[in-house]
Write a structure and sequence with these properties.
- The longest helix has 19 residues.
- The relative contact order is 0.17.
- The chain contains four helices and seven strands; from the N terminus they run E-H-H-E-E-E-H-E-H-E-E.
- It starts with a strand and ends with a strand.
- The chain has a seven-stranded mixed β-sheet, sandwiched between helices.
- By secondary structure, it is of the alpha+beta class.
C-alpha cells in the first residue's frame, strides 16, 4: 500500500480546507452538527490552526494522489491528539487511515499516548480505532439528538 504523508504549510491551507469540507459533508448532512463538524469550519479557522505552534497538518497521499489530511495536536507531556483525520469519500474503505496512524505514530515516536474523538453512531470509525489499539475513555458528549461524541485514548 503506497500511503505517505507530506507536512502541509500555509500554502496548503485551501487544499486542506477543501478536502476537509468534502470529507465531512456527508456526516454534516446526516447529523446536522453545524457547531462541531469540520465541514462547517471556515478557511480562517484552518489558517488559525496552521499558525498554532502545537499543530501539524499533513496531506495524505495514496498512490501519489492527495486523498485527505490529518491534524496532529501536541498536548502536554508527550500526549498527542488526532483532530481530525479525514479521507475523501471516494478513497474511504481502502485501509488508508489505518496506515496513516502507523506512520504518524512512528513520526511522533516520543508519544506516551494518543487521543481522539469520533461519532459514537459511526460504527466503522469506532471499529477502526479499536482495531488499531485505541480504548474508549468512558467520556462521551451528546451533541444533539442524533449524535454523541465518544473519546478514545491509546497508551504506548
Amino acid at each position: 500500500m503506497d500511503v505517505s504523508l507530506c507536512k502541509a504549510n500555509l500554502n496548503d491551507a485551501v487544499t486542506i480546507h477543501n478536502m476537509k469540507v468534502k470529507s465531512f459533508k456527508p456526516l454534516l448532512e446526516k447529523y446536522q452538527d453545524f457547531e462541531t463538524n469540520p465541514a462547517s469550519e471556515t478557511i480562517e479557522r484552518v489558517l488559525t490552526q496552521f499558525n498554532q505552534s502545537f499543530t501539524d497538518y499533513f496531506i495524505i497521499y495514496h498512490l501519489g494522489v492527495a486523498v485527505g489530511g490529518i491534524r496532529v495536536v501536541k498536548k502536554d507531556d508527550q500526549i498527542y491528539s488526532v483532530s481530525p483525520i479525514f479521507i475523501l469519500p471516494e478513497h474511504q474503505g481502502k485501509g488508508i487511515a489505518q496506515k496513516v496512524f502507523t506512520i504518524v505514530e512512528q513520526k511522533y515516536d516520543d508519544a506516551k499516548s494518543w487521543r481522539l474523538g469520533t461519532i459514537l453512531q459511526e460504527k466503522g470509525n469506532c471499529y477502526l480505532y479499536e482495531k488499531i489499539g485505541y480504548k474508549k475513555t468512558g467520556v462521551t458528549k451528546v451533541i444533539n439528538d442524533k449524535m454523541t461524541m465518544v473519546f478514545y485514548e491509546k497508551h504506548l
